[in-house]
Amino acid sequence: MAKVTVDGIEVEVPNGATVLQACEAAGKEIPRFCYHERLSVAGNCRMCLVEVEKAPKPVASCAYPVADGMVVKTDSPVVRNARRGVMEFLLINHPLDCPICDQGGECDLQDQSVSYGMDKSRYREAKRSVKDKNIGPLIKTIMTRCIQCTRCVRFSAEVAGTAELGGTNRGENMEIGTYVEKALTSELSGNLIDICPVGALTSRPYAFVSRPWELRKTDGIDVQDATGTNIRIDTRGPEVLRILPRINEDVNEEWMADRGRFSFDGLKRKRLDRPWLRVDGKLKPVSWPEALGAVAAKLKATAPDRIGAVAGDLVDAESAFALKALMAGLGSANLDCRQDGAAIDASRPDFYRFNTTIAGIEEADALLVIGANPRTEAPVINARIRKRWSLGKFPIGVVGPAGVDLTYGYDHVGEGPATLRSMLAGTHRFMAVLREAKKPMILLGRGALARPDGAAVLAASWAIARDCNALRDDWHGFNLLHLFGGQMAPLAMGFLPGAGGKDLGAMLSGGVDALWLLGADGIDPAAIAPETFVIYQGHHGDRAASRADVILPGAAYTEKDGTYLNTEGRAQISRTALHAPGEAREDWRIIRAAAQGLGVTVGFDDLAQLRAAMIAAAPALAEGFTRSFCMDMSGPAGDADALGDAPFASAITQYHLADAIARASDVMAECARTYGPVPALAAE
């Protein structure tokens, strides 16, 4: 540890720390533009100048290492004058765009020019002008505002892993761009907006829409993938205008995937805002009493073992628990939350969780990916894998389609179950790599379980983890990567076939006469038996709604208080940002009203009672998270010898249209037209 004195305050910092970090440890604010805690040091902007005793001139604190006994001054006349000079240079060519700039009110350059700049300008020459670049449908560029801090260049290369941005020319002629004009291909490109300290990179869908002080800000959770990204939902009146990430070091750090960030316009399109009832073969709008009366009449006239329910991929835990309670009150055990047909064994939580944890990826020293594409299924988790890979000594093997670009180097060890068989036999070369690792990690994609041999794939993957010593009382290396934010909570509460109950396949093929679909938009309507009476409860008129006999309009995740479990089993609460449109209501309230019409007691009358009953039945749904390790190495149900021969395929082939909200979004539709299906590029 080095002892450093900052403005008379003595602090101890690790050897190798920078002067800027020492100043922050002393509670001193240091202005900066190019420096970012999660990116490499560039030292471009020189705004972080400080005075170091015995140094001949002010030094850039972001790139200057500390030394024991160093004395630093952060607010001396020399420092103030140096910062004013730097700010004057930065503003020489910066346009006077503040009144029309979307960064206004959130601009680092605005704030620091007021705090550290001069009160006048000596520049009289003409400002330079830079042509704007077209880098896709999500990012708007006004490159005349760029101050060449290179944050965007470093983020693209280091975090996103798609080195598509760079600088051309030198000095005053330097421009940031993509060399050959093209759309950015990263699923994390929206984070460029957050890290840009000026208004050079802004959100194209949000352009000229609002000012930050006009927005109501609500904490939420992104449910459009299973990462559990912490978000802030910005609304004005009855509309979501933008979604931004919040910092959570254990989950998403400060990054967010593009689909969750930019598909917010889908929350107001194709919405179900009134109940509908099929009369004489056609859906007609009706009142709530009429819709619930039709539901009650049908369910009362149907035997309990002929009633079924399916929970979708974006549902909150409260809604799923309420529907499970209703089905229990009716005497039905026909429940399923695996609308993709994944063969998940829910008898133990560690059979279906991301047990290593997202932050725990940084502890691993070897990784085997089976039937998953983390880049499209969970871009933020993929960035964490890349972060670990960039530190070195992290061999990665992938069993799946060949030639997929995951943004990091890997060893393509096979395409299908044949590779798993050779690993179990101990003859595959990558098995030796896993056995030599101290903390090996297996990442199994949920799509690999949505196959006829899914149970065998699960059993084989667990057996591989056991054989390479990834299952221990101090390390749990088996991980299942889910696809959406509502998939984990129903598993944790047991929203699965009970004793004598029918699973999804049996229900769809005519095993039930009445089928309640709770946000189950991933089901092909043609797969539902023609004679089945379908009750659809959800927020978008997506695929399943077209097959419904009764439609009950529910609330999207931004319109209700809801608990969601991410892929690692972390329970997080999303808050109500705005009211549901029209006559739509919170899903648990709809189910409670239906239960009352059926004369069924569900055990709760308000949200507090519902949550208390839910947590009592499934403690994992209590807000918070405790990491667990493997105390029992016995595997899930399934015969590893029953593996098939078909190669694994990607679970998400069109990233921008993967869920009902995204499919309703014009922005995501434009992205789909721009990018097309997920590309298969050569691995490094």
CATH architecture of the largest domain: 3-Layer(aba) Sandwich
The unreliable regions are 679-684
Task: Determine the number of helices (DSSP H or I, runs of at least 4 residues).
Answer: 19
Q: What is the count of β-strands?
A: 28
SSE class: alpha/beta
The largest sheet, given as strand count, sense and whether it forms a barrel, is: 7 strands, mixed
CATH topology of the largest domain: Rossmann fold
Care to give the gist of this entry?
This protein is an alpha/beta fold.
Report what the structure shows:
With 684 residues, the chain is α/β, with parallel strands linked by helices. 26% of the residues lie in helices and 17% in strands. It has four domains: 2-92, Roll (Ubiquitin-like (UB roll)), CATH 3.10.20.740; 122-208, Alpha-Beta Plaits; 292-342 and 487-621, Rossmann fold; 349-482, Dimethylsulfoxide Reductase, domain 2, CATH 3.40.228. The protein has a seven-stranded mixed beta sheet, with helices on both faces. Strand 11 and strand 12 form a beta hairpin. Helix 8 packs parallel to helix 16. Residues 679-684 have low confidence and may be disordered. Its EC number is 7.1.1.-. Its cofactor is [2Fe-2S] cluster; [4Fe-4S] cluster. Residues 78-117 form the 4Fe-4S His(Cys)3-ligated-type domain. Keywords: 2Fe-2S, 4Fe-4S, Iron, Iron-sulfur, Metal-binding, NAD, Quinone, Translocase.
